[in-house]
Amino acid sequence: MKEAIILAGGLGARLYPLTLTVPKPMVPVSDKPFLEYLLNRLIEHGFSRVILSVGYLGGQIEAYFGEKWQGLDLIYAYEKSPLGTGGAIALALSFAKTKHILVLNGDTFCAIDWQAMESAHIKKQADMTIALKPMKDFDRYGNVKVVDGRIVSFDEKQHVVLGQINTGVYILKKTLFASFSMPERFSFEVDFLQCKLSDVLVNAFMSDTYFIDIGIPEDYQRAQVELVSEL
Question: Coil, helix or strand for 44?
Fold first, then answer.
């Protein structure tokens, strides 16, 4: 697995006014764009090709990184209008070359062992594998239920004493959507994962590693210190 998709097209409304002029993946963390941390980690782990799903202010991302970043080939999948997370993934998959592909969110950093995750994905012959992180006393994220290594449900956001969250890190087959008539615009989490869960084999990969989502101001400020120390 040497190819990845990064979802980088969101509006980043919760980080206004910072994202009024800068796309969320490009907000600065210790004087360099957050997205740069993701790309550099992909390079360190042997990836050679990344498809960037871009929309809002996406031209800034292409202007900064270009078509090649430190030896990493970058392909830009532009949304002409907002497609939702599902539509964005489907569009990016049309540019993919490999059978299995890693999908990351452009506002989240998770220090997962991608190679181990891929091995588990292939061993289980899964249609999709989701990295889950054990967590205590949380209400910002929905809890994910797992039975015998297979994800069986996604709970609504509520206070959970002990559970596991979806990190937004996926490995999926390029043909994941081939058997479904999905609209051009749809939510990957709601319209596909929740509605089609019984129709696909979704494997859980547990990973209790460093995780941060910069989508809210508090965690964005926390990243200024934590993310640099993690690398």
Answer: helix
Q: Which residue bears the tokens 């997962």?
A: 112
* DSSP letters spanning 182-203: --SS--IIIIIIITSGGGS-EE
Backbone φ, ψ for residue 224 (5° rounding): -60, -30
Residue 17: cis peptide before it, omega within 30 degrees of 0: yes
Question: Model confidence over 52-108: pLDDT tens digits?
Answer: 999 989 999 999 999 999 999 999 999 988 999 999 999 999 999 999 999 999 999
CA distance 202 to 175: 14
CATH number of the domain at 136, please: 3.90.550.10
Distance of alpha carbon 112 from alpha carbon 89, whole angstroms: 20
User: What does the pLDDT look like over 45-54, one tens digit per residue?
Assistant: 999 999 999 9
**Distance, CA of 201 to CA of 45 (rounded, Å):** 26
Q: What total number of domains does the chain contain?
A: 1
**DSSP string of 87-101, one letter each residue:** HHHHHHHTT--SSEE
- Domain ranges, residue 190: 3-230
229 Cβ contact partners less than 8 Å away, ≥ 6 residues apart: none
Residue 84 is given by DSSP the state H
Q: Please tell me the pTM assigned to this model.
A: 0.94
